[in-house]
Amino acid sequence: MNREWNDSQPIYRQLRDRVVHMILDGVLEYLVNPLTVLKAYQELVDEELVEKRRGLGMFVKEGAHKSLLKGERQKFLSEHWPRVHATIQRLGLNPKELLDAAARSSNRKEHR
């Protein structure tokens, strides 16, 4: 899906269409109170990932991607990796088996 907005329709309409596509694709299936959405956006503002521009809307801040990536990597390594590593150890998987499985997974994704 194109991440850029175009000038052929108002942005709210393009956003609506993207949400419709995500619902149809089964990607977005949440029933969320509008106040919950506002709270989520406020957290993004508080985390300095987006900024409010009066009269213009919300904008992703410069460096947000890099900041998120750093945080999510650290979260993975501290929260998820220990469980993954324990499972690898428990199953007696070796690095070659893991790399082969990753390659097969990548090949399947490329052929979709």
Low-confidence stretches: none
The number of distinct β-strands equals: 2
Strand order of the largest sheet: 1-2
The end-to-end span amounts to 15 Å
Rg value: 20 Å
So what's the overall shape? extended
Structural class: mainly alpha
How much of the sequence lies in strands comes to: 5-15%
Q: On the 0-100 scale, what is the average pLDDT?
A: 87
User: What's the number of helices?
Assistant: 4
Major sheet details: 2 strands, antiparallel
Short description:
The chain has 112 residues and is mainly alpha-helical.
Descriptive keywords:
7% strand; 112 residues; 4 helices; 63% helix; 2 strands
Please provide a written account of the structure:
With 112 residues, the protein is mainly α. A two-stranded antiparallel sheet has the order 1-2. It has helices spanning 11-24, 34-46, 64-91, 95-110; strands spanning 50-53, 57-60. The mean pLDDT is 87. The protein is built from four helices and two strands; from the N terminus they run ααββαα.
Topology at a glance:
Blueprint: H1 11-24, H2 34-46, E1 50-53, E2 57-60, H3 64-91, H4 95-110
Antiparallel strand pairs: 1-2
